[in-house]
Amino acid sequence: MTTLVEILVSALFQGSLYAMMAVGLALIWTTLGVFNFCHGVFMTLGAYVAWQFVGADAWGLPLAVSLPLALIAVAAIGFALQASVVRPFVGRDDIVLVAVITTLAASSILENGTLLVWGPRPKGLPPLVPGTLVAGGIGISDHQIAIIVATPLILGALWLFLNRLRLGLALRAVAQNEDACHLVGINVTALYGLAFGLAAALAALAGIFFGGFKFMSPSMGTEPLSKALVVVIFGGVANITGPILAAYIIGLFEAISTYFIGFYWTPTLLFVVLIAVLMVRPEGLFAQRTRGLA
Amino acid sequence: MKRLGFLREILLILLGAAALATLPAFVHDSYLRHLLIMVYVYGAVAASWDLSLGYGGIFNFGHLALFGVGLYTYGMLTKLAGLDPWLAFLAGGVAAMLAAAVIAVPILRLKGIYIVLVSFAFSQLVLQLIISESDYTGGNSGLVRVPMLKIPGHNMVRDNKLGFYYIALVLLLLATIFLRGFVRSALGKSVVALRDNEEYAVSRGISLARQRLVTLAASALFTGLAGAFYGGYFRNASTDVFGMGLTTLALSMVLLGGRATIYGALIASFVLTFLSEAIADFGAWRPITIGALIIAVMLVYPGGLAGALVSAGRRLTAPLRRAPAAHPVETKVTP
What would the pLDDT profile of B262-299 be if each residue is shown by its tens digit? Predict the structure, then answer.
C-alpha cells in the first residue's frame, strides 16, 4: 500500500512538471510551426527571476507577489525572443531548421546571461506551501501536493481558454489555417507573440515549482527540456491534450520502472517504448491532425 | 565547380591538403597547431553532418552522439580491453556507423520535426547509458589516461603536436574525399532527389528507407573516427561531448558554412574554431557572442557564408550580364 502511494505520488508529481513543460512546446509548435529549444531556459529564467524578487539576499518580496511578477517578466522575454529570432523566418520553407538553430543560439545566450547575472552558486526558492504531510508512514511535502493539485487546474484553465474563449479559439485558428486568419482579420503576428509568451510563462511556472524543492543552476532547464521532448514525441504536438496525457503516463511509467527496474535503466526502457510507439504511430499516440507531417 | 571532373576535384583537394601539410614549417607554436588540429576534427564532424542534413535533408540531431560513440569506443577498447590504439580508432568509426543504423531504424518512416525529436532522444539515451554503466565508462567523471594514438618510430609527446597535426590532417583529407565522392556519385544524387522531391524519387524506384540508412551510416563513419581521434589526442573521454554546447557549435558550422556544400562546413570550422578561441578569455561572454553571431548570420544570410559568397559574386558579375538571370533554382531543405 505504502509502495503504491509512493509510486502514485511520484508519478503525479513528475507528470505535473512534464505536462507544464510539454504543453508550452506544443502550443508554440501548433501556432508557429517551430520547435522552441529555448523552452528549458524559460524554465531557468522563471526560477531565477522569481528568486530575484523573493530571495532573502535579493529583494525579499513575498512569494505571492513575486510569482506573478516573475511569470509576467518571463512571458515578456518570451515575446521579445519570438519577435527577434523566430518571426523573421516565418513563411520560409526551411523555418523548422532555421528556428532550431536560432532558438538554440538564443538559449545559449540566455543560459550564459543567467550565469553572468546570478552567478554559478546554486540557489533555492521557498516552497509554495511550507510543511510536510505525514500519513500512513510516508511523508509528502506540502509543496509537492500543491503542485499536484495546481497543475491540473492550470492546465484545465488553459484548455478552457483554448476551447471556449475567442482569443484562445483565434490561437487555434492560426494553428489550423493561417491564410484564412489573415482574411478574417485576425492579428496573426500578435497571436504568435501570445503563444510564445504563454508558453514561456508556463515554463517559468515549472521552473518556480522546480526551484522550490531542488537547487537551481543556470543549466537546470536542459534535462526537463529533453524530458518534455520525449513527452511530445509520445503524445504528439498537434494539440495540448495529447502531451498532457502523455506527461502523466510517462510520469507513471518512470515511477513504476524506477521502483521495480532501477533508476539507471529507466531512460533506456523509456526509449525502447518510444521506438515501439513511433513504429506504430509516427505522429504520436493521441494526435489526430498534425502539422508539418505531410 | 559543377563541371569539374571528380578526379580533378580530388587533385585540388590534395593540393589544398599539401598546402596545409606545409603549415607546421611556419607554425611552431604548439597551441596554434592544437587549434588547427581542432579545426580539422570539427571540420570532419561538421562536413559529415552536412551530408545527412544538407544533402539528405535528414535532421539528425544526435550527430554529436555518434562522435561520442566513436570517442567512448576508442576509450573503452584501448583502456579496458587493451586493444591497439589504431585498431580501436577504426573500431570507433565502425561503432558510430552501427549507432547511426540504430538511429535510422525508428526514423525511417518519420518526417520533419519528428526526426529531430527522435534523434535527440537517441543522443540522450546514449548519454544515459554511458552515465549508468559507470563501471566501464567512468560515468559522470569519464575515462582518463586513455592510451594515445602513436606513430611508430615517432615521439608524439615532444614534437609540438606535429604527429597529431598530420593524423588530423589525413583524417580530414580522407573525410573530404569520401564525402565529396559520396555526394557526386549516383547514390548521392538519389539522396538529393529524395530530399527535393520525395514522391517523384520514390516513384522512380529509389528506396527511401535504404537511402536514409546509407546516408546516416556514411555521415557517421568519419564522425566516429574523429571522435576516436579526439580520445587518442586528449587522452580522455567525458560526457561533455553530449552537451548542447558542442552540438550548437557543429550545427552552426554546417549552417554558417552553407548547407549541401561540404566545403562550407570546412571554412566555417576554421572561422568558428579560431573565433571561439580568440574570445576564450571572455568566459560566459564567449557563448553569448557566438550565439549572437549565429542569429545575425541566419537573419542576414540565410544561405550561410557560402551563400553570402555566392550572392556577393552574383552582385559583382550582375552588370556584365545583359538580361537579368532567371530566378536561381533553389533547392529546398525540409528537414
Answer: 898 999 999 989 988 888 788 888 888 888 888 888 88
In a domain, A64, yes or no: yes
Looking at the complex, report in whole angstroms how far the Cα of residue A7 sits from the nearest Cα belonging to chain B: 22
H helix runs in B133-239, sequence order:
134-137, 162-184, 186-196, 198-203, 208-234
The answer to whether position A123 is within a domain reads yes
Cβ pair B122:A271 closer than 8 A? yes
ipTM associated with this complex = 0.82
- Residue B246 near chain A (CB below 8 Å): no
Domain span including residue A26: 20-219
Which cell is A249 given? 503516463
Domain count, chain A: 1
Residue B323 has pLDDT above 60, yes or no: no
**Cell numbers describing residue B106:** 525508428
Share of chain A above pLDDT 90, in %: 33
Domain segments of chain B as ranges: 23-240
**Chain B partners within 8 Å of A232 (Cβ):** 117
**Pairwise CA distance, residues B262 & A97, whole Å:** 18
C-alpha span between B88 and B93 (Å, rounded):
9
Tell me whether residue A277 is in a domain: no
What confidence tier does B320 reach under pLDDT thresholds 50, 70, 90? low
DSSP assignment of B132-161 equals H-HHHH-GGG-B-SPPPP--TTS-SSSSTT
A250 within some domain: no
The reply to whether B296 touches chain A by the CB within 8 Å rule is no
The answer to whether B314 touches B243, Cβ cutoff 8 Å, is no
Using left for φ > 0, alpha for ψ between -120 and 50, and beta otherwise, residue B323 falls in beta
Name residues 112-131 of chain B within 8 A of A (Cβ).
Answer: 112-114, 116-118, 120-122, 124-125, 128-129, 131
How many CA atoms lie less than 13 Å away from B305 in the CB half-sphere?
Answer: 20
Q: Average of pLDDT values for A144-171? A: 90
Q: Is the pLDDT of residue A154 over 90?
A: yes
Residue A203 or residue B249, greater confidence: A203
